Amino acid sequence: MASLHRICCFVAGLSWCLHSSFGHAEPPQVSQNASVSIVGVIDQGTTLQVLTVLSKLPRRLDVTIDSPGGHTPAAEMIVNAFTSIRTAGTVVKCRVTGKALSAAFWILQSCSIRESVPSARLMAHEPYAMWVGETGTYYRASLPALRDLVKGLEHDSDALANTCATRMHIAITDWHKRLEPGDWNMTATEALKQHALDSIIPPLTS
């Protein structure tokens, strides 16, 4: 967890955080290119993997995405990291090789370049809370806890909308309307028409 915190400090504050967290008097070595895969359920392990690669300060980052989504806080940290390094001049090129659903769709929209293979599936929806337990298990939550939960969901919804609506060139109100019925499923072709992708490319051959 300590490593995750230190790398996140770097993402938020670039050189200052690297200096203060890692104790380097000189600036970090800059790499030209780097790559990382976001595959499977997105969690803190995914975030740590991505941020570790970003600590090399690549000029270009190639990201492969094939994910059903996952934990919203983990995804938001990746989105914020990609936004920060793009502002600093790094090109983040993301390619969907299978699916980019839910939180993975959010991450895709934070990339500089958004590509997919023709068979890719994309899906977006509003953030939600879910309790999972054994059959017959009951959960109790106080009113303050529920208020905190709603506040967190509102934050997630706003952050998601700001990223996605901006990249897809639609109003935030229109974004929310599209998600009112539930999941917004898109083929690669539809995603291209909706400006959720920049291009559709042939799959890589071995």
Descriptive notes:
The chain is α/β, with parallel strands linked by helices. Strands 1, 2, 3, 4, 5, 6 and 7 form a 7-stranded mixed sheet that branches. It has a single domain, classed as 2-enoyl-CoA Hydratase, Chain A, domain 1 (Alpha-Beta Complex). The chain contains 8 helices and 7 strands.
Task: Summarize the helices and strands and which ones pair or pack.
Blueprint: H1 2-13, H2 15-22, E1 33-39, H3 44-54, E2 60-67, H4 72-87, E3 91-101, H5 103-109, E4 113-116, E5 121-124, H6 143-168, H7 172-179, E6 184-187, H8 188-193, E7 199-200
Parallel strand pairs: 1-2, 2-3, 3-4, 3-5, 4-7
Antiparallel strand pairs: 5-6
Mean pLDDT: 84
Q: Low-confidence runs (pLDDT<50, min 5 residues)?
A: 1-26
Helix content estimate = 40-55%
Radius of gyration: 18 Å
Question: What kind of sheet is the major sheet?
Answer: 7 strands, mixed
CATH class: Alpha Beta
- Domain module tally: 1
Indicate the structural class. alpha/beta
The ordered H/E elements are: HHEHEHEHEEHHEHE
CATH homologous superfamily descriptor: 2-enoyl-CoA Hydratase, Chain A, domain 1
Number of strands: 7
So what's the overall shape? Answer: globular
- The CATH architecture designation is Alpha-Beta Complex
Range of strand content: 15-25%
- How far the N terminus sits from the C terminus, by CA atoms, comes to 37 Å
CATH topology: 2-enoyl-CoA Hydratase, Chain A, domain 1
Please work out how many helical segments DSSP would assign. 8
